[in-house]
């Protein structure tokens, strides 16, 4: 049977946005993120981190550095019993490394998840602080939830006329609560 998933953006959504984060010590969870992730997991969602990390293409960081930051994030949520079903990142930037199929809003990272899991994308969600995340939601036929943390409050002020978020909420915990309310109907 197909499962539901929540695809969480990383910076500005689950952990505090700090421009570029390449040092594990910079990883700081957003208030309520731990509760949000553990709630999602306890209700049977598969949970993923999907992150554009163009700093790699820009030569600002290595894949190893980005992986270490991801490992810190995994370490921070582990004590709450939260384990991500996948943590993916896109290291590219079209103007430097050429077009790729994984940079959000493209769906490559979702397709990686689908290699391992049987997911019903129409019953799944993308939670993020950028329009790129909302574009991804549209591209895969999922529901997009924009959070006002990170760049979200700025993005909210300049929403396009089409392809915008399905919902806008204050933060990741509010996003997960909204999802749980929605599936209860
Ligand atoms: Mg972000
Ligand atoms: Zn890519």
The CATH class label is Alpha Beta
Any idea what the radius of gyration is? 15 Å
Distinct ligand kinds: magnesium ion, zinc ion
CATH topology tier name: Rossmann fold
Question: What shape does the CA trace take?
Answer: globular
Mean pLDDT: 96
CATH architecture: 3-Layer(aba) Sandwich
Largest sheet: 6 strands, parallel
Name the CATH homologous superfamily.
Answer: HAD superfamily/HAD-like
Distance between the termini: 20 Å
| Secondary structural class | alpha/beta
Number of strands: 6
Can you tell me about this structure?
The protein is α/β, with parallel strands linked by helices and 185 residues long. The chain has one domain (5-184): Rossmann fold (3-Layer(aba) Sandwich), CATH 3.40.50. Helix content is 36%, strand content 15%. The protein is built from 7 helices and 6 strands. It has helices at 33-42, 63-77, 94-97, 108-116, 131-140, 152-157, 172-184, and strands at residues 5-8, 46-52, 86-90, 125-128, 143-147, 167-169. A 6-stranded parallel sheet has the order 3-2-1-4-5-6, sandwiched between helices. Helix 1 (33-42) packs parallel to helix 7. The longest helix has 15 residues, at 63-77. The two termini are 20 Å apart. The protein binds magnesium ion (MG) and zinc ion.
């Amino acid at each position: 049977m197909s499962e539901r998933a929540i695809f969480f953006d990383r910076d500005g959504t689950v952990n505090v946005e700090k421009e570029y984060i390449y040092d594990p010590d910079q990883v700081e969870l957003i208030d309520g993120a731990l509760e949000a992730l553990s709630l999602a997991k306890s209700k049977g969602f598969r949970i993923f981190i999907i992150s554009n990390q163009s700093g790699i293409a820009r030569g600002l960081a290595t894949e190893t550095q980005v992986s270490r930051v991801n490992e810190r994030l995994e370490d921070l949520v582990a004590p709450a019993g939260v384990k991500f079903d996948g943590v993916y990142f896109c290291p590219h930037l079209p103007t430097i490394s050429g077009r790729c199929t994984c940079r959000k809003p493209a769906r490559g990272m979702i397709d990686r998840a689908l290699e391992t899991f049987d997911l019903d994308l129409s019953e799944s969600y993308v939670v993020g602080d950028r329009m790129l995340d909302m574009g991804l939601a549209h591209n895969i036929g999922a529901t997009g939830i924009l959070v006002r943390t990170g760049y979200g409050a700025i993005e909210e002020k300049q929403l396009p006329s089409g392809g915008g978020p399905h919902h806008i909420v204050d933060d990741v915990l509010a996003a997960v609560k909204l999802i749980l309310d929605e599936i209860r109907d």
